[in-house]
Write a structure and sequence with these properties.
This protein is α+β, with helices and mostly antiparallel strands. The protein is 44% helix and 19% strand. A hairpin with a 6-residue loop joins strand 1 and strand 2 (118-123).
């Protein structure tokens, strides 16, 4: 067995594991894919670096060890201090907007987000997904009025200030 192959084998395993762990904190999936490819490369290199039965056992060890680590990660990470800081505490049912109805035509409210042209508005104390009429942009905090309900979408326009 060559020391060079063993060095590459260890480096690919260590790099692959670090990249897979980094995927939790880096968005996009690139780090996770590169880490998985490094681990697959380490398995292939294990066949070349070790004699007949040990190459297969090293590849099997990477798969089994990776599976055990994945299961432990799924069970333990959400309970850790870091896991609790980066995961949602609720299921998101409170984040949904209310359903629009034709009774809201003429109702006044406030744009919670900038309407470019779509966004969220507060009408009668409830959050609604709205669309600025005519494709206009309305800044956050602006007073708005519902002008129509079309295809389940609330169309709003800014309220003109009194002269």
């Amino acid at each position: 067995m060559s020391v060079s192959l063993l060095t590459w084998y260890i480096a690919l395993i260590a790099g692959g594991l670090l990249l897979v762990i980094a995927e939790v904190f880096l968005p996009g999936g690139v780090a996770g894919v590169l880490g998985a490819l490094a681990l697959v490369g380490a398995m292939g290199l294990g066949f070349a670096a070790f004699p007949a039965p040990w190459g297969f056992l090293s590849a099997l060890g990477i798969v089994v060890f990776g599976g055990i680590v994945l299961l432990l990660w799924v069970q333990l990470f959400p309970r850790s201090r870091v896991g609790q800081r980066i995961t949602l505490a609720s299921d998101g049912s409170d984040f949904k907007a209310a359903r629009p109805s034709a009774e809201l035509v003429g109702a006044q409210g406030e744009a919670v987000t900038a309407l470019r042209p779509a966004g969220i508005a507060l009408l009668d104390g409830r959050r609604y997904d709205v669309l600025a009429e005519g494709g206009d942009w309305i800044p956050a905090g602006a007073a708005i009025r519902v002008s129509a309900v079309r295809d389940g979408q609330l169309l709003v326009r800014p309220v003109e200030a009194a002269p």
